[in-house]
Amino acid sequence: MNFFTVMQYVGDGIDAFGVMIIILGCIGATAIFTRMSLRTSMGAAYTPYRQNVGRAILLGLEFLVAGDIVRTVAVSPSLLNIAVLAGIIIIRTILSMTLQLEVDGRWPWQNKLES
User: How far apart are CA 87 and CA 78, in angstroms?
Assistant: First the structure.
């Protein structure tokens, strides 16, 4: 097994871990939401549910970006692949920033006191 094959597997493993984080985070958030909605109103349980799902997606996206970086840089560092990676990272960064706004109610660069 050569270096490129190992790096492909590493990138795929990081991707799988990111997807697993999203799935398990959504399942956990749903379990917490269900338990909270039985104790309180649905409205009171909804905001923490959205925040927990958003956090799971944000963390999973970080791993998915890392997997793409490993595969692109280590396996096939052509100019076209790097340009595609840059586009993916830009899209995921914008998505992460908007999810951060949804979860915390402020932009990532704002202090908690500014929001």
Answer: 14
Can you tell me the mean pLDDT for 61-76? 87
Mean predicted confidence (pLDDT) in 43-69 = 90
- In the three-class reduction of DSSP (H, G, I as helix; E, B as strand; rest coil), residue 50 is classed as helix
Token pair 């109610």 is found at: 105
Listed by start position, the domains of the chain span 3-104
List, as one string, the DSSP characters of the chain: --HHHHHHHHHHHHHHHHHHHHHHHHHHHHHHHHHHHHHS-HHHHHHHHHHHHHHHHHHHHHHHHHHHHHIIIII---HHHHHHHHHHHHHHHHHHHHHHHHHHSS-TTS-TTT-
